[in-house]
Amino acid sequence: MDNIAGTKSSLVWAVNIAVVVLVLLWTIPTFGLLVSSFRDRDQIATTGWWSSLFPHEASLRFRIGDAETQRQEGEVFVIDGSVFEAGGTVSAFGTSNRDPAAHEPGEVVDFGDGISGTVNEDGSYRVTSPVAFEGRSPRLFVTSVTPPRFTLENYDRVLFAQGLGRAFLNTMTVTIPATVIPILVAAFAAYALAWMEFPGRSLLIASVVGLLVVPLQLALIPLLQLHNAIGIGKDYLGIWLAHSAFGLPLAIYLLRNYMVGLPREIIESARVDGATDFQIFLKIILPLSFPALASFAIFQFLWTWNDLLIATVFLGNTQDQLVMTGVLRELLGSRGGDWEILAASAFVSISVPLVVFFAMQKYLVRGLLAGSVK
Amino acid sequence: MTSRFLAARFLATAAAALLSGAAAAQDLKFPPGEDSRFNWDSYESFKRDLSGQSLKIDGPWGGVDKALFETVVAYFEAATGADVEFSGGDGFEQRVMIDVEAGSPPGIAVVPQPGLAQELARRGKLAPLPASAADWLRENYAAGESWVDLGTYAGADGAEALYGFVYKVDVKSLVWYSPENFEDMGYEVPETMEELKALTEQIAEDGETPWCIGLGSGPATGWPATDWVEDMMLRVNTPEDYDAWTRNELAFDDPKVIAAIEEFGWFARNDDFVSGGASAVGSTDFRDSPKGLFTSPAQCFMHHQASFIPSFFPEGTVVGEDVDFFYFPASAEKDLGKPVLGAGTLFVITKDSPVAQAFLEFLQTPIAHEIWMAQTGFLTPHKGVNTEVYGDPTLKKMGDILLQADTFRFDGSDLMPGAIGAGAFWTAMVDYVGGKDAATVAGDVQRTWNTLK
Amino acid sequence: MDQLFMAGGTVVIGVFGCVAYFFLSNMILDAVWPPRGPDAGRNILRAAMIRPWLFLFPAIALLAVYLVYPVFVSIWLSLHDNTGQRFVGADNYLWLLNDRKFQESIRNNFLWLLVVPGGATFFGLIAAALTDRIRWGNFAKAMIFMPMAISFIGASVIWKFIYDYRGEGRTEIGLLNAVVEAFGGTAQTWLTLEPWNNFFLMAVLIWIQTGFAMVILSAALRGIPEETIEAAILDGASPFQIFLKIKVPQIWGTIAVVWTTITILVLKVFDIVLAMTNGQWGTQVLANMMFDWMFRGNDSGRASAIALVIMLLVTPIMIWNIRNAHKEMR
């Protein structure tokens, strides 16, 4: 397309760099969550996620093995072991909170009450006492450099959570009809609003925009009342209808806008050829609107997938109706403080929408054909 | 663990989920009649036939608490043949309001805020409990009358009746500390409020930081400070003043209340007294805050929080060894006894049925309390239970604080209307630790409260 | 498993039902007023009056029940007390006018409306334009789109790790403070820093919504007829000129749609504010205030009044859209 080769290559560079910067800005926050999902709760709460990528210095508090692990060596009782589970290097240690880095590794230190011991550079410790250890065993304070340490435990807990498989099916049961139905209904309505002449058309368009803003939270009680009154109760039919209706205004709005932009000549020549509106819609509009349909499908899928509020209201909390977001919330603990679980579950639940996005992406390109049809 | 193993397990679980629709009937945790510490007579004598009937219970408990409560429910099911489904979890307050208003209520709701139960009663959505339940509470719960009061509200017709039955109590007047850190520095556990303040100053003088305080809680930011203020209310004012305050008969900006807020401010608004400085208090997450007790070197020496907090301690922390708690002491100068602040859950009947009534009757049996006591995280004011069954010494120690209390008062913010107790009060606390004047923030709360009348 | 069949069945029945409805109703219409024979002219006119409504009927029915009906319920509730039983006239609205949190919310909402739709549309347009020109564009798109796929609660935790503040002498776990400290600054409690904290919350929504803008705008950009661009290239226009003078004007309608959609979303957004600050430190917005009164205050009257204010704010956008629709028809 471009003829001037020199400016072209520099432009390509600039574009590439700009996109790299944009992508970095947009992914760094998520990347932090991804890293956090492989860390345990205590790590998340005490150090930044970026520091876990490199060996870093940390101060640990450690209680030596309890009295049951002691053994007698001649006159003295000994407890030994290592302060590390997975390796590291001790740079200093102490026996009291007052001065946690008082001693060099290898130095033999008096713990009080005749107990003495030492910590070596590799983290191994040995504490001896002239009398048998009893009750609470002494503490060690260790300053050490530990290598990066990651765990799969969070994913283990999320993926094998009780009822997650079932909840996955439930969520699919909710999302698939709730994505397909509104698209179809909206496509017809959007066509009428874009290409058919009738009184009150612009008023209807404006109402659709107005309905976009209706806050769902207020609709919940009257609608559940309605569902209960007509006998739907809390069941899948109710949530399909609710999700479809809540998604409709945006669907109509986006699709109408797209359809209005389609070349007028195609539609008019079809009309001249004697095609009915129904035929025009099915054979011309629908195929040409694929990019818009696909993009709305992605969004509607995302909302129904990530929704918790509508599901808790219109579906029950029982095993055969609980959706994935509901199960994940249960995992967060009664006060929602388990961020490591939240991080892992965010990546488990993001995987399906991303697959949908990649699957739909090729349809987004069809717009190119739309332009070249005429 | 290799990823292959993960995948295999995932498939296995998915397959299992597909094959077995419902979980097998739950086994009873402690076989009836075996452990003599339990009151099995009460279980046997409760037995009746309700087979074929079903009951739905909704409540705030998810995760561990849900599983624990289900072990109790299993005994009811075994004793009656009824089918009980507990569908608890987060977001209960919204769910129950929507369900009740829309006409699809559960049979029983487990409400953590008496204010919410009161609202439901006022709208005529609750079934009153039989008069015998009130008598039973008076006789069998320690400080029975106060529990009756807690569950008694005006109904839609304005007539007062008992609607709520308290089951499961938490103690809030606790200060958590590391005994070894105290030993290292030669500190003693304070017995009075004056000693606590002296200790706070002492720690600051030693160049250390006495307190970890964090009010952050996402959507509920500010609540930890309400517990502080309520504890202070009970330590500078009489219990009667406290009751009047929760009903707004004592204005929120009354000097007595402002004094309590300022007592909290003495601790929280001093840069030398709180870890991270006073400016960090408002935004520090309450779940992260206690972790300062366990760092090396310790970022703080004390943390005021309710009995649930050990679940946010670092993994492997042993309560009673690595960390312990003492009673948030009362003032020696004022003659107010030993007040204890607590919370609990109220069982209310949202859809009346024989099986719902039977379930509340079941909660009166000692065995319904002992099953949960023998596990974890459960305290009860029931005098007829055997305290020997407490699952761990920590619970027993908390139970002792509860029993030694001269006054027990329920968490005030849960008694107030939602717009105050879960709204204006929180905002006021956040503003106060942010540097606003106590009288100003208290005035703000009172203004909001005025618009509710 | 039968459940999935049920869902599949519903999709099939739903799709089939919809198509059958449209097909049959159109057929019946054509049978009643056939577009041929002696009355052909009149019949075509009459059928043309009915047909749009056949196309619109399912959508209108769903919208009427699930969105219009609740609006009327809200109007009714906003004139009643907290239990919805006693008529209180305009009390709820009077209360609103005097409420300081409401004034704060209105101010913040206007800030949000100024910053977020513009920001998200701008970044979305840039992302769409740039990623279409490079080989790894699809991957880049997926990365920028990713925040959209994360639930709001996940997003709030992600940003907690950005804005977190630990206090002096403690290791910061928030990225922003770590960066500030690395450059020699002092850590800040970003979320309590009035009035800037509002902008930190807005950043979260821009971060999320850019993916939405990008997807829609990218589809529009690709729909631009090649000829116009080729003509411009032949005229020697630079890529910037092509973008600004040829492409942007052609997708102006879509830009407006994206901007409108995000504007309306901003009016409704409460998850971010609720999860990160709950409206403390001067960050309250209308939607969160409504949520608060609905579910914490249990006062459907006040919540409805706030909801109606939110709906009122959308009127200028509606009027603007009516104008646009008129223009398109010409």
Automatic annotation (TrEMBL), chain A:
Record bears the keyword Calcium: no
Ranges that cross the membrane: 12-35, 174-196, 203-224, 236-259, 280-303, 341-360
Gene3D superfamilies on file: MetI-like
GO cellular component: plasma membrane
Cell membrane listed as a keyword: yes
UniProt cross-references to SUPFAM superfamilies, sorted A to Z: MetI-like
Main location: membrane
Domain spans labelled ABC transmembrane type-1: 168-360
Protein keywords: Cell membrane, Membrane, Transmembrane, Transmembrane helix, Transport
Cellular localization per UniProt: Cell membrane
Membrane topology value: Multi-pass membrane protein
Biological-process GO terms, alphabetical: transmembrane transport
Family the UniProt entry places it in: Belongs to the binding-protein-dependent transport system permease family.
Protein name in the entry: ABC transporter permease
Native organism: Cereibacter changlensis JA139
UniProtKB/TrEMBL annotation, chain B:
Pfam families (UniProt xref): SBP_bac_1
Places the protein is found: Periplasm
UniProtKB keywords: Signal, Transport
Signal peptide residues on this chain, from the entry's feature table: 1-25
GO cellular component: periplasmic space
SUPFAM superfamilies registered for this protein in UniProt: Periplasmic binding protein-like II
KW DNA damage (keyword) present: no
Main location: periplasm
InterPro entries per record: Bact_solute-bd_prot1, SBP
Family indicated by similarity: Belongs to the bacterial solute-binding protein 1 family.
The protein's name in its UniProt record: Alpha-glucoside ABC transporter substrate-binding protein
Native organism taxonomy: Bacteria, Pseudomonadati, Pseudomonadota, Alphaproteobacteria, Rhodobacterales
UniProtKB/TrEMBL annotation, chain C:
Keywords carried by this UniProt record: Cell membrane, Membrane, Transmembrane, Transmembrane helix, Transport
Matching InterPro entries: ABC_transporter_permease, MetI-like, MetI-like_sf
GO cellular component: plasma membrane
Topology with respect to the bilayer: Multi-pass membrane protein
UniProt subcellular location: Cell membrane
Entry keyword annotation includes Nucleotide-binding: no
TM helices/strands, residue ranges: 6-32, 53-77, 110-130, 142-162, 199-221, 251-270, 303-322
Domain ABC transmembrane type-1: 106-321
Biological processes per GO annotation: transmembrane transport
PROSITE patterns: ABC_TM1 (PS50928)
PANTHER family tied to this protein: ABC TRANSPORTER PERMEASE PROTEIN (PTHR30193), OSMOPROTECTIVE COMPOUNDS UPTAKE PERMEASE PROTEIN GGTC (PTHR30193:SF18)
Family that this chain belongs to: Belongs to the binding-protein-dependent transport system permease family.
Protein name per Swiss-Prot or TrEMBL: Alpha-glucoside ABC transporter permease
Organism, scientific name: Cereibacter changlensis JA139
